[in-house]
Amino acid sequence: MSNITPAAQATKQTWAAITSTGVDTTGFKLVPTRRRKQKPAPGITTTQAPSAPSTPHARQRRLLIHTVEKGRRVGAANVPPTRIRDAINSVCETKFACAKYGRNDDLILTTMDDVSAEPALQFATTITKPLDDIGIYGFDLRLDIPTLNLVVNSVPLGDDDGKPRDWEINSEKWTELENELSAFNPHIRLTDKPKWIISVSTLRIEDKVKSSIIVAVEANDWVSKECNKPHPFLALYGTKCSFRKYVRKDSSTHCKRCLQFGHHAISCRSPSVCKLCGGQHQTRVHHCQELYCTAGKGKSCSHTVRRCPNCEETFHFAGDRHCPTRTRARSPTTAEKGKAPKRAHTPPP
Question: How many domains does the chain have?
Fold first, then answer.
């Protein structure tokens, strides 16, 4: 480097020009140069192309006409869904293209591919009049928002004085229950009327003081975060009531705790049973009793004797598809697929 003249360094000559002067190049190393971003010439500005507008999600394009009264379909039998759609399009700026009935007898209206259905809620009062003219009443408008059912436990059946509340069909206590949930739990938003997990007549026969309710709420970030906590709760009637995510069950539901069928591990109170050896411990803490076995905790190895605690067989684990107990538990489910699910007691408005 010392052989390079100051004049050559000042003029920033190229490598070819420097080597042509006879300079010793043994101490140099060629490295790839990083291409620099060229700056625009003075007076010339570069602008990015405008990004294409985002297309609304399929749920954001749906508007639900939800019936307040359970078991009643939106509109009479002689009113086709397209007529209801045309009546709404006549007074609403947001135009709907498709109309069909959902599984809950709600009418689902879908907009075009690039239009959201949320602006249509501003015309809720305007939409009521044309629907009344064709005999559509007793409904409310809502967006197709993901919902989550929660089981709220230890809800008191009586008031502060211990007097039983009137939980009849036309009682105002149902409205009071909704107001309690909405007023003192601002993070949740109800999407349907709450209902007891068992019928009111059963509550009276068993003379219960507290019971559980099923609440349908919007599946927002707060609800999802709280469901992952060990002991979440809601404020109701001046007490803290624990809640959990509602999980459907049938005769084929396999419990991961006691390994029996018919319920979930979240509501199981039986002792834990190991799936691998059938011992009275959790599967995740199972370990081989052999001294030099390298299998980790909760892992099966060649020393594990397969034993099903349900059928007492020794050639498969619990819940295996060859287990006769599992086959008998799944048989009623196949026959009941066409039947409507049983619903708990729900009051009309």
Answer: 3
pLDDT of amino acid 152: 92
Three-state SS letters, the chain: CCCCCHHHHHHCCCHHHHHCCCCCCCCCCCCCCCCCCCCCCCCCCCCCCCCCCCCCCCHHHEEEEEECCCCCCCCCCCCCHHHHHHHHHCCCCCCEEEEEECCCCCEEEEECCCCCCHHHHHHHHHHHHHHHHCCCCCEEEEECCCEEEEEEEEEECECCCCCECCCCCCCCHHHHHHHHHHHHCCCCCECCCCEECCCHHHHHHHCCCEEEEEEEEECCHHHHHHHCCCCCEEEECCEEEEEEECCCCCCCCECCCCCCECCCHHHCCCCCCCCCCCCCCCHHHCCCCCCCCCCCCCCCCCCCCCCCCCCCCCCCCCCCCCCHHHHHHHHHHHHCCCCCCCCCCCCCC
Assigned domain for 129 exists: yes
Q: What is the pLDDT of residues 255-296, one digit of tens each?
A: 888 888 888 787 788 888 888 877 888 888 888 878 788 888
User: Is residue 10 situated within a structural domain?
Assistant: no
Residue that wins the pLDDT comparison between 188 and 35 = 188
Range of the domain at 312: 253-320
pTM of the model: 0.54
Tally of CB atoms within 10 A around 326: 20
Work out the average pLDDT over 52-57.
67
pLDDT the model gives residue 75? 59
Residues 298-313: what's their mean pLDDT? 80
pLDDT computed for residue 11 by the predictor: 54
Chosen domain end from 125, 143, 161: 143
